[in-house]
Amino acid sequence: MRNDILYTPAHMITYEIRAIVEIADKLRKLGITTHMENIGDPIARGERLPVWLKSIVADLAQDDKSYGYSPTRGMLETREFLARLTNEKGGVQISPDDILFFNGLGDAIQKIYGLLRPKVRVIISSPAYTTHSAAESSHAEQPPLTYALDPSYGWLPDMDRVRAMVENDSRISGLLVINPDNPTGMVWPEALLREAVEIAREHDLFLIADEVYQSIVYNGMETQPLCRVIGDVPGISMRGISKEVPWPGSRCGWLEIYNADKDPAFARYAHGLLQAKMQEVCSTTLPQLSIPRILSHPEYEAWLQERNARYEKRANVAYERLEEVRGLRVVRTNGAFYMSVVFEEGALNESQKLHVDSPEARRLVESALDQPNVSLDKRFVYYLLAATGVCLVPLSSFSTPHQGFRMTLLQQDDDVFEQTIESIAKATTEFLSS
């Protein structure tokens, strides 16, 4: 090319959650049955939507209004509905104009970080959800700036360390909280969430709360939304229907912007988000129109609780079996539908393998691993896929020094799920002793 056209940090961006799918596809062609526990798509894993929900969407599809542009901020009746839900929680009060719709939260994440000045940093939790870490890293042209979630402490952060990082790095202007967390399934206790707010207040930061899993909690846990605890601190809540309804194919997410009037710089930033959205005209209309009808339907809450009960059961099945495996550190999942498992320090080495029946599958995986600087947990995950068909994600791909794996809790067939967990447990034991 006439010029080097690749954006400098683009080579650093990987998405192992989907990259491993290419290997799984090739293994399926070799006759290997796969169990895809890598991507958080309930529909792909067989979750069936209730008839009443489909009827809402079908009815809206008959309305010509569903096929037109929406206002840039989003459909007014939907924003009014969502603002009312937030205001009824008794914390910060917002208007419909404080809500901005995007084509999925991936779209919103790119705008949130892309509009920041390059020297400004947002500190994010680690293990870090890849879309956040990649977007923050790209905007700064540096590795993501992270604070640690500790598996020895239930994947909770040490807020004294977070405070120290903020005090010692004047570039930090934002603090990200994912609650419930992806990839760990941790639910933030209210006390720690309030500490995050206090750190932001003390150091003049804004908060970002990715709350797309806010309603998916179980094992007796409760979660506090940011709107209840933020007070007068500027902040953004990220919400959507992809996981909660679930309707991931809708690509429908929104931002709730809090306290923009409390800080002129944050007000300009919030206006910049609106201006950036104007360049794309609007978000998709039909999913927006469905939100008030779905969330207010008389069967919705029972449907949601039924789903949460299923996630709770699977989370506990996985925890109870995997904690028996020597060499693993397992934390019980209490929210979202993921579990992150860590290998004990020193448990992995470069010589470990699993027996793979198919010579073609073995060659495929070993070829994929024959690259420089392949992490040890990636080595485990790829051998596991070839040997058992179970597709996980290496934990190190979530911007963390911890070696381990993330799996979903989305398999709908209880027997298949238990068999999958058993396959992981037995393969782990074999791998670690090889």
CATH-derived topology of the largest domain: Aspartate Aminotransferase, domain 2
Oligomer: single chain
- What is the overall pLDDT average? 94
Query: Over the alpha carbons, how many angstroms does the gyration radius reach?
Result: 22 Å
Low-confidence stretches: none
Class of the largest domain in CATH?
Answer: Alpha Beta
Count helical runs: 14
Beta-strand fraction estimate: 5-15%
Report the strand count.
14
Major β-sheet annotation: 8 strands, mixed
Structural category is alpha/beta
N- and C-termini, Cα separation: 48 Å
User: Which CATH architecture of the largest domain would you pick?
Assistant: 3-Layer(aba) Sandwich
The topology string of helices and strands comes to HEHHEHEHEEHEHEHEEHHHEEHHEEEH
Specify the overall morphology: globular
- CATH superfamily membership of the largest domain, which one? Type I PLP-dependent aspartate aminotransferase-like (Major domain)
Helix content: 40-55%
Tell me the count of domains: 2
Describe this structure in words.
41% of the residues lie in helices and 14% in strands. The chain has helices at residues 16-29, 51-61, 76-87, 105-114, 130-140, 159-168, 190-203, 226-229, 264-278, 285-295, 300-322, 359-369, 376-388, 414-433; strands at 35-36, 99-102, 121-126, 146-150, 156-157, 172-178, 206-210, 235-240, 253-258, 328-330, 338-343, 390-391, 393-394, 404-408. It is built from 14 helices and 14 strands. An 8-stranded mixed β-sheet has the order 2-9-8-7-6-3-4-5, sandwiched between helices.
